[in-house]
Amino acid sequence: MEYRRLGTSDLEVSAICLGTMTFGEQNTREEAFAQLDAALEAGVNFIDTAEIYPVPPRAETYGRTEEIIGQWLSERGTRDRVVLATKVAGRADWLPHIRGGPKLTMAQMADALEASLKRLNTDYVDLYQLHWPDRNTNYFGDLGYTHDPGDVSVPIEEQLKVLGDFVRDGKVRHVGLSNETPWGLMAFLRAAERGDLPRPVSIQNPYSLLNRTFEVGLAEVAIRERVGLMAYSPLAFGVLTGKYLDGKRPEGARLTRFDRFKRYSAPAAEVATSAYVALAGEHGLEPAAMALAFVHRQPFLAATIVGATRPEQLKANLATADLELSPAVLEGIEAIHRRSPNPSP
Questions:
Q1: What are the catalytic residues?
Q2: Domain count of the chain?
Q3: First and final CA of the chain: distance in angstroms?
């Protein structure tokens, strides 16, 4: 397993990060423990979670993923062997079961962190991330930005000051962003420099063969400012495995169980996916392996977040850590991308 420095921090993280949003919904506690054990055995030292997990978020399951991870850390005695990352929910009226609708205020962030630490059975987290912005902007696949001058949000400087208090108190080692824009990332970096506040060391955004929009503006910022990408949805909800092509809906699969996840199911995405699956077949590769290996090789990447519901899926995903794609495969990927650029932003 390759290890990389996470941004400007002192954290050395595995190039593959274990995503956990299925724990407590698609995966039982026992299955989650098995995944965590297998990942640690394979050299993965980076675990990512969030207060809203599992997904889809529901009042009945809120916090369950963190609870399962906390139980594993306690029962296995593995806290000092992992880099633990979690996230606080951004502004969201559509999540009334979380503090009556989460906002990134001082009080709410303090409550969220204390609750996460309790569920995780730890007195600190290595990376605390803002799950999405506390302002009107584009994330979760939104397009067509419209500026709202009347939008009332918590100022970025105030958010960073709260995070700075967490770092000073020893409850958080480093801070990161998620689902951020180029403007947002630079605004946080400027505020950190001006106010001697914690500098974001990572940004967790989607990146895959079907969504390479990170390359447009964020890639340059990430490289020049040394803010590592934690790439989520590298298989586009499993679409890039090819298992959903031609209308297939395998039993128990995420898109079969939850029809709300439509981000990677547009007709244009189906066309591009078919092409990527065919390209992988031409070169004797599994489509998922090719898709993950492409993400792993990006110069702005700190870690690829992989998730799984079955042991064989996790084993296959972990095996891609050392897979290198040939020039012919990379040329084929670029040819498809030119024909079908970012069909699922």
A1: 53
A2: 1
A3: 30
- Residue 286 lies inside a defined structural domain of this protein: no
Amino acid 200 reads P
Q: Is residue 341 in some structural domain? A: no
pLDDT tens digits for range 330-342: 999 999 999 999 9
Residue 219, domain CATH = 3.20.20.100
For 90, phi then psi, to 5°, come to -80, -170
| Whether pLDDT at 217 is above 80 | yes
The answer to whether residues 229 and 300 touch, using CB atoms and an 8 Å cutoff, is: yes
Overall pTM surpassing 0.85 (yes/no): yes
289 burial level (CB within 10 Å; 0-12, 13-18, 19+): middle
Query: Which residues lie closer than 8 Å to 279 by C-beta, 6 or more apart?
Result: 290, 329, 332, 333, 336
Which of these, 269, 255, 254, lies nearest to 212 by C-alpha position?
269
Mean pLDDT, the chain, integer: 96
Residue 41 lies in a domain: yes
pLDDT at 256 over 70: no
257 pLDDT above the threshold of 80: no
Euclidean distance between CA atoms 284 and 144, whole angstroms: 39
Residue 46 three-state SS: strand
Cis peptide before 267 (omega within 30 of 0): no
